[in-house]
Amino acid sequence: CGFHLRGSGGASVPEEWRSLFLVTSNPNSEFSREVKLRFANAGIEWADDRADANYLLVLGPERFSQRNLSLDADTRAAEFELTMRSTFSINNARGKGVMPDTTGTVIKQMENDPQNVVGKAEEIRILKAEMRSELSQQILRRIAFFAASQTPEA
Amino acid sequence: SAQDNSGWVCEANAEGVLSECRLDPQASPARLDWVHRRQVPAEQIDEQCLRCDGSYIDPLGHLDRSESPELSDIHASAGSTAIQGNTITLSDRVEVRQGYRHLSADSATLDRTENEAQLQGNIELREPGLLLRGQSAWFDSDTGEAKLRYSEYVLHQQRLQGMAQEVDRDSEGILHIHGGQLSFCPPGEEDWLIRADELELDTEEGLGVARGARIDVAGVPVFYSPWVQFPIDDRRRTGLLWPDIGSDTKGGLDVSVPVYFNLAPDYDLLYSPRYIQERGVNHEAKARYLSPVVGSWTVGGAWMNDDKRYEDEQPEERNHDRWLGVVKHNGLFNQRWRSRVDYSRASDVDYMKDLETSSLDAKRRTALLQLGSLDYLGDKWMANLEVQQFQSLADDINNDYKKLPQITGRYRPSGEPFKIDPILLAQYSSFDTDDERVTGNRLYTEAGASYPMQWQYGFLNSSAKYRYLHYDLNEHPDFEENNPTSGAATATIDGGLFFDRSTNIAGRGLLQTLEPRVYYLYSEYDDQTDQPDFDSAELTFSYNQLFRGTRFSGRDRIDDANQLSLGLTTRFIDDTDGREEFSASIGQIFYFRDREVRLDPRDEPLKTGGSEVAGELTFYPNERLSLRTSLVYDPYTDSMNSGSFQTTYDPGDGSLYNVGYSYRRPLTTTSNTTPTEQAHFSFYLPAGRNWRVFAGINYSVEAHTSVEDMFGVEYDSCCWMVRLLHLRYYDTDSGQRTTDFDDPTLTREHSTQFQIVLKGMGGFGSRANSIMKDMIRGFNDSEY
What we know:
heterodimer, A: 154 residues, alpha/beta, six-stranded mixed sheet, 30% helix, B: 784 residues, mainly beta, 14-stranded antiparallel sheet, 5 helices
């Protein structure tokens, strides 16, 4: 039905876009590490100095929020909805905007147990780590496709 | 003689001295640069312009403001000119240009030694962002100082206009307005305005000050103050904010008047005295401090002396003062040290229920977090020190275990493919509790290695580690052994492939992927029936669970496993921007051994040969519509264990619609056994140009009752907004367990909130606003 293994003719990050510098308030946070790792594994070289990079990835912090999705008969939360967002954009080496602000979003839900707040707090930690990873995957994909659309095919 | 081009009509006597000036109600708004929407260039039409039916168009708005006009030469022209010594008399339409400053009048007398001018008739003084009109004026071209009589003024960017007997512009650019008025409404449509003896407008600081001030709404005076300071843009400025006016069954009339103190660029204070009819006065305050060294700090709280209603309801309580303390901090030092404090403490379990009126989520909280945490973020290592406890907000729930403290060190994997990555983690925690449960210390360690392999078409990650757990428990009758230990070797293999194809749906190019994934998990069994449960819970089963190395949160259980997960994901990705428009995943775990390790050691092993089937589907066909659904189906009992469907439609015309449904059969380990089944509907909908109606309901399908619902209406004109909403919700007595929504101990609470905002003068947040955010998913108030 037309499927083929990726890499046999599929898109990858164009050469010019493989040199990036990360602009972020906390380069050592779990989220920044996750993004750096994913991009590196997709062939991107992170420059140590912004002067050496072709493009700058401006990465906003992870924004996490939690809301009650449903209530049980004690009018306590039966389920939580967890949302993680981050806004990112690409500037060229001179700092001029190339890709406008784009927001990636990951939403998850989980069951609550009001009698075990600590255990559920630990579960939220696990989910946050997974959400970070999905969010960074989204960011990589958006940027890879944007890069491909900006680079005329050889 | 009548003057055109001005809102003032004056009579001049024989000497040309103005007398008898009055405002002309017929004057065209165009004199103040007000342009009707039809004439506004398309690129300048915005939301505000539509609502106001026009906007101020500044003819000089494009000019460079960096060079002060005082440094520029003066170019003057006039129909006729007469020079006498140092005095130049210009008449018959005078035009003067000095840098970006434009000045025109019917006639003028210039003093060349003093660089001053006297102007008469139809005076127009323009600078980028400013228009002053007047009938007679004095002007100093060295300083830019000006005095205009019978004047009108416009500040284009602040969307502000007004008139005055006299306007003085000082050398700093501050406007001093004597005997005048000011409005953020369009000229001729002043639904509300401020009249004042003296007004001072400082655009640089974004600040207005009025003396002897009166606010008129629809021509009726509603407020008087001898002195008031207010913001004239969206910067936060010291002053009164718009009051929150409400009434509810938890306390009667409830009015809070926030006062904001902008103390310095890096710290501020918000104080809101709040009068609650049946209770008393609650003093609420919040101070913020932002520093590059110690990070951001918010210290807040509330205090009420002797809550009358609480005294009636809980006479057995000795103290009827109510209070709340909140400290929030986030810091990052040297990009390596990260600190966090999130601490809330309330006077009693009912504080949030009784006195937190802004957010329903906050009212429903069953525990308040009290956390302090410090991380070191190294390149290869990470360390964390944390203290955490919860204050229970329900009489039937014990305070949870406290971590006093927990210390964690871990190796940060490089994740580099085709390289062995060590796995190292050590965590020491000390658990304490106020009640009779066991307490003690716990050491958890894991060590091993992972080997990630990655290609463009797929990945294969293997890992092996040993997990070890050691307790040092205090004497407790339930625990014979004070030092239980357990350990198990764990191995995982995680592999996936990516298949792609290009496809075309409805004329749009899409990349479809097919991503099969296999995850094998093996872990030895070790008996853990003598171990406590300090911080563990069973994880919610979902698609993500298929690829997790454990089925428990926390560190108290090392689960036994010999299992294979199979999952399949397909995505449709927009081939121009990489946006995922559709994705669907389905998978299941196949177990090759019973799961003997249980959260509650008394529970029987789980024996099914496979897990529930988990599925997830998201559909984002465009930026406007989103749909998420998830399902958990148990093929062994042929039952749907959880299902959820959430959709949001935001057509971009200012309206918003949500439909949601969620069903969940609880885990066997949680205290509740009845499933929850809830539907959600909400909308926010324009009705005509200025009106909006909104409503939201969370409906319990199992009990056929509304759990909480809200409806409201708002009128939003160009320069003011008013909003009224009514909310109903269920409330339980803390400590009373209810089994279903028909339980008579459930009480139906009502709350009505009223909000009025005169736009242009700052203001942030409100109770109505937060309730709407709670009840209408995706609702975000526009700026005003």
